[in-house]
Write a structure and sequence with these properties.
Distance between the termini: 11 Å
Function: Major role in the synthesis of nucleoside triphosphates other than ATP. The ATP gamma phosphate is transferred to the NDP beta phosphate via a ping-pong mechanism, using a phosphorylated active-site intermediate.
Catalytic activity: a 2'-deoxyribonucleoside 5'-diphosphate + ATP = a 2'-deoxyribonucleoside 5'-triphosphate + ADP; a ribonucleoside 5'-diphosphate + ATP = a ribonucleoside 5'-triphosphate + ADP
Subunit structure: Homotetramer.
Subcellular location: Cytoplasm
EC number: 2.7.4.6
Shape: globular
Bound molecules: adenosine-5'-triphosphate, magnesium ion
Order of helices and strands: EHHEHHEHHEH
Strand content: 15-25%
Length: 137
């Protein structure tokens, strides 16, 4: 069965949206395998977003993700990687479809509430990075 790494970003945690976001994935039918609040280190932030290290907004991105705690989660279920991305909506909330998490709760691309792995390879890499591969079943 497929697994993915999802993370409520600092803006979502500060705005009290952890419960709402967990609830959406639970109601959809996915299974929560692990979760924790984490104060992200500079090293973890850079490693997590390594693919974006050449982007002009990389410093802003790692600065934001390390600014206050995030809520990292591992979810399991058929097609969970693509379905979670669809439920999140487009990267830029201004382009995200109505009913998606980013459309419902965000207005700026930098503070867009949630992260979700974008491929099976990145899902396994991120689960290993954030949870050391340690999840429940
Ligand atoms: P995420 O990886 O967080 O799930 P994503 O896969 O939709 O988002 P990526 O291209 O991986 O988008 O970018 C990672 C994050 O970097 C985005 O979620 C967003 O917060 C930030 N970001 C992307 N593009 C920009 C931009 N042009 N300016 C500022 N921040 C950006
Ligand atoms: Mg991404």
């Amino acid at each position: 069965v497929e697994r993915t790494f999802l993370m409520v970003k600092p803006d979502g945690v500060q705005r009290g949206l952890i419960g709402e976001i967990v609830s959406r994935f639970e109601k959809k039918g996915f299974k929560l395998l692990n979760a924790k609040l984490i104060q992200v280190s500079e090293e973890l932030a850079k490693s997590h977003y390594a693919e974006l290290s050449d982007k002009p907004f990389f410093g802003e991105l790692t600065g934001f993700i390390t600014s206050s705690p995030v809520f990292g989660m591992v979810w399991e279920g058929e097609g969970v990687i693509a379905t979670a991305r669809a439920m999140m909506g487009a990267t830029n909330p201004a382009s995200a479809a109505p009913g998606t998490i980013r459309n419902d709760y965000a207005i700026s691309v930098g503070m867009n509430i949630i992260h979700g792995s974008d491929s099976p390879e990145n899902a396994e890499r991120e689960i290993g990075l954030w949870f050391g591969g340690e999840t429940l079943s």
